Amino acid sequence: MIDPFLNKTLRPILANLARPIVARGIRADHVTIAGFGLGLLAVPALALQWYGLALVLILGNRVADGLDGAVARLTTTSDAGGYIDSVFDFIFYSAIPFGFLLADIEQNAVAAAFLMLTFMGTGATFLAFAAVASKRGIDNPNYPNKSLHYMGGITEGFETIVAFIAFCLWPQWFPILALSFAALCWLTTAIRLWSGYWTLR
C-alpha cells in the first residue's frame, strides 16, 4: 500500500549502497540470485526454529531485492533481470510460510497452507493483469522503472515483509498472524480482480 512512497524515499539510499557494488563489477542479476539464495536459506532456519537467524536472512533477501534494481539503474536494466527478480520474489514469498509449516506442523500447517493459497490469489491477479497491461500498453506511473506493470493493493511488498517480521518475532502466534494477514491478502485479491477487470473492459 505504501510501496510507491517507500520506493521514492529509499531510492537515493539504495543508489549510494549500489555504487561500490557496481565498482566491483557485480551485476544486478548476481545480486538478485544471491538475495534469492539468502531467502531460501530462511526455510531450513525456520524449520529448525532458529527464528532470529531466519529474520536476518529474510531481511537480507529484501535488502538484495532493493539493491539489484539500484545496481541495474546504475548499469543496464533488462527485461530478463526483471523477469527473474519477479519469479524469485513469488517463490520466496511462499517459501516463508512453508518454513513455518515445517517448524511446527501440528500448530502451523493449516494457517501456512492457507497463506500459500492466498499468495496464489494475490500473485495471479498481479501477474495476469501485468501480462495484459503490457499488451495494451497501459501506463504504470507509480513504478515507471519496473519491467512488469505493478498493480497496487492493501498488501504489497512492505506489508508482506512486516508480516514476516511479526511471524519471526512472535512464532507462537503464527496461526493467528498468518490468518489475519491472509484476510488482508484476499481483500487485495478482490480489489485487484475488480479494478483489473473493469480497467481492461
TrEMBL record:
Q: Which UniProt keywords apply?
A: Membrane, Transferase, Transmembrane, Transmembrane helix
Pfam families for the chain: CDP-OH_P_transf
Q: Which InterPro entries match?
A: CDP-OH_P_trans, CDP-OH_PTrfase_TM_dom, CDP_ALCOHOL_P_TRANSF_CS
GO CC annotations, alphabetized: membrane
Q: Name one GO biological process term.
A: phospholipid biosynthetic process
Its transmembrane ranges are 33-60, 80-102, 109-130, 150-169, 176-195
**GO MF annotations, alphabetized:** phosphotransferase activity, for other substituted phosphate groups
Q: Which PROSITE patterns match?
A: CDP_ALCOHOL_P_TRANSF (PS00379)
Give the record's family classification: Belongs to the CDP-alcohol phosphatidyltransferase class-I family.
Name under which the protein is recorded? CDP-alcohol phosphatidyltransferase family protein
Q: What organism does this protein naturally occur in? A: Pseudidiomarina aestuarii
